[in-house]
From TrEMBL:
This is Uncharacterized protein. Keywords: NADP, Oxidoreductase. Belongs to the short-chain dehydrogenases/reductases (SDR) family. One of its GO terms (molecular function) is oxidoreductase activity. It comes from Adineta ricciae (Rotifer). It comes from the Eukaryota. The keyword Oxidoreductase applies. It holds the Pfam family adh_short. The keyword NADP applies. Gene3D superfamilies: NAD(P)-binding Rossmann-like Domain. PANTHER family: CARBONYL REDUCTASE 1-RELATED, CHAIN DEHYDROGENASE FAMILY PROTEIN, PUTATIVE (AFU_ORTHOLOGUE AFUA_3G15350)-RELATED. InterPro entries: NAD(P)-bd_dom_sf, SDR_fam.
Amino acid sequence: MTEQKRVILVTGANKGIGFEVVKKFLQESSSKTNNNDVILLGSRNIKRGEDAIQQLGCPSNVHLLQLDTSSKENILINNAGIVPREDSIEAAKSTLATNYYGVKMVNEHLIPLLHENGRVINVASTVGSMGLYICSKELQKRYTSSTLTIEELDHLVEDFLSAFESHNLEHMGYPSELPFKAYSVSKAALIALTRIEAREYSHKKNISIYAVCPGFCATDLNNNAAGARSASLGADSILYMINTPTNELENGGFYRDGEKLSQICDDDAAVRAYIEHSKKLVEKIQ
């Protein structure tokens, strides 16, 4: 049985006890048949961190992380995401674990470290808003409720996965024509999560939280699809949310290229075009 990969962060690891802790992790790892540990060597000074890794023999699973625990960060960008390559419950669970639960967990742990007036960018997608457009009115109402809680949103996601596994999605209100079902739900849930977090954290150090769609960009997620915009252009959409004064933005809002979008897409033609395009894209990805 393969051991689960561990990501181990050791702060102050360029010398002293922290350095010795990293050394011992490496010694333990060398005795294991399957070593999946990734060690982040935290150091305030980059040069000293690099020297420490040199002393360790430059092991491939040790990575330098410049980190000053006495300072707090101003901006957090949740960009990690995946698209399932198969229509299985395992792939669906993995997609929601990364695109929804993973972002939620990161925010729970890192938002408290942000400065007053900090910002959080959750990278979402119009796939979520277009997916909601063709879902049942009841699901639309639940995902967009102004009083939705994280616990209730978790239940929505859990119910989706349960229905996915039991092949009961249509009964739940998710139509068969919904493309990339797990990915679509993960992004709809992320947009909803952004609104909830904005309500919660705006009263705590005045943190602003936004969902941003970078657009359909040519990346590994879609095998660098022909006709897609560049990843550089997608990054501009994210940078806009970082550089624009908060009084010009709606906290908890969903944006693309500086334009505020609806949580549920209201462009029927765009949704129908997306469905047809997705059918072709699925053939290329699989």
